[in-house]
Amino acid sequence: MESVIDRACAAALYSEGDAGLDTGASLLAADPLSDEELHRRGEEFVRRAWARGWQPADVVRAVRRELEEPAPALVSALITAETGAYATLPPRWADQLAGLPAPAPRNRPDRFTYASALLELYRLLLRLPVIEPVGPPPGTAADAPHRAPVAGEPRMLTRIRALLAKAEATGFPEEAEALTTKAQELMARHSIDEALLAARTHSAGTPGAVRIGVDAPYESAKAVLLDSVASANRCRAVWNSDLGFTTVVGFEPDLEAVELLFTSLLVQGTAAMTKAEAGQRAGGRKRTKTFRQSFLMAYAQRLGSRLAADTARVTAEAGEESGGGGRAGDAGALLPVLAARDVAVTDTAERMFPRTTTTRLRGATDAEGWTHGTEAADRARMGGGKPRIRP
What we know:
- The longest helix has 33 residues, at 288-320.
- The chain has helices at residues 4-12, 18-29, 35-51, 56-66, 71-83, 93-98, 111-126, 155-169, 173-200, 219-232, 252-282, 288-320, 331-352, 367-380, and strands at 208-213, 236-240, 245-250, 357-358, 388-389.
- The two termini are 44 Å apart.
- Helices cover 62% and strands 5% of the residues.
- It is built from 14 helices and five strands.
- The chain is mostly helical.
- Strands 1-3-2-5-4 form a five-stranded mixed sheet.
- The radius of gyration is 24 Å and the shape is globular.
């Protein structure tokens, strides 16, 4: 005999519009005995998302883009329950779980409203497409191409994080410039040290990948900024505009650097944009949307060249070092080692994304916004191009 859950799901999940949702929610609201099975069904839908390549942060991002409250809190409760069944979880999942919204209490504000929201969420979960995995799903052995981050955080990354936090907090542009420049320099040197160490120890490490959210508004400019940061740190970035994230492929130390620097530069850029916009509005201007778009696009474009220049400078200096406190004996080996890692990253990215395309982004139409964005990029001491996009 068909259960209440089966009847409710058949009505709500495989049809369009609100009528099916109302029918399913009415069935569930009238049957409190179905509650536990209803939530077990939701956990199964979450497991299917893991099998399709999704991770907790990805699922919450998709839910926030498509559904209103309380959907993010509802999916948070399902994810928390589902992942609690595993003895160990894949790399990066602990941080993602810690960042989940507070889980929603059951059957609030009433049984019908709650069931309706839950069924709408299930409808979305069932329709999530297959995406490129950036790590193994829970309950499986780690996949070799997606190497786990080492336990703990290297002291260098702790220092970089502190420098960027100071750059975000200071009200003095010159100080922010110096702090951010120093952070990028440390990132580049850390990447070089890791590459040389791997070569000396014949490490079998392979490139991995991470997904980073690129949220509206002005997501095209943000995607360009992330692409610039990734390229400067020896990674490859592919933007999925439909799903609101960029996949960054690279070696683990470089992926960590990209996440840190992109987040910090976005904070700095947004703060600079808000300040510049306030000055424009004080002068009587009202075209804030075009100003912001132009500002952020100029900011991203300018940072691309500056980031690339900083990395090239640090790499050249490292190649010249020898003796004393430098990397003795590594000068001649550095460029071949870095070239081999670039090839490995490119090969991994092309295997993950055999078909990508470029897109023509909306141009900057506000001269004042472009000028202020360029100046903000100069102050941040950071600086591209068209992002690669998954079709």
